[in-house]
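Quick one: structure for this chain?
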Amino acid sequence: MRTVPVLACALLALAPMLASAAADPVPEIKRDAAIAAQPVGGVHTLRQIPEACARIEGQFTGQAEPAYKFAVVRTSPNCQPRARFVDAAKAKPSEAAGWKFNDLIRVPSAACPQQQAVVRIWRKPAAAAVPPSLDAQGKSRLYLQDEKEKAAANKLAAIPMFAAAMSVEGKPCGG
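Got it. Here's what it folds into:
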């Protein structure tokens, strides 16, 4: 039968993508497998993270190295972040370290259909901040000297963090 060799070839071609997908934990955000194919040089938004006042932008370069690049861009100078965006290479996010696999974004290349950029976004939650207790006047206050002492003792409340890691999967196109 002719069907078996064709099916085997198709599975072999998909094996690298399936292996990387199998290695990832299930992301918190469910989305379609990929966004629309993107042209070389076109800057596109991958994801917005309002609590970090950040937007992740990507771009296919048309070069062998790097084939794709991404950047974290501040959304507004007036935005007050409630979370930090950290470098994934330094943070080394993993579920064992308390990070949650938040999102998986696949971006196919319009110029090279067998190649795609894969962005993995991780989130490290923090405990909800407890408001300060009420003082004698019934007001909830923070005092600068107390907060300075907490900062010096490294006892400030943790804030949520995000990290993004990118890789390019598939065969590069000849050119």
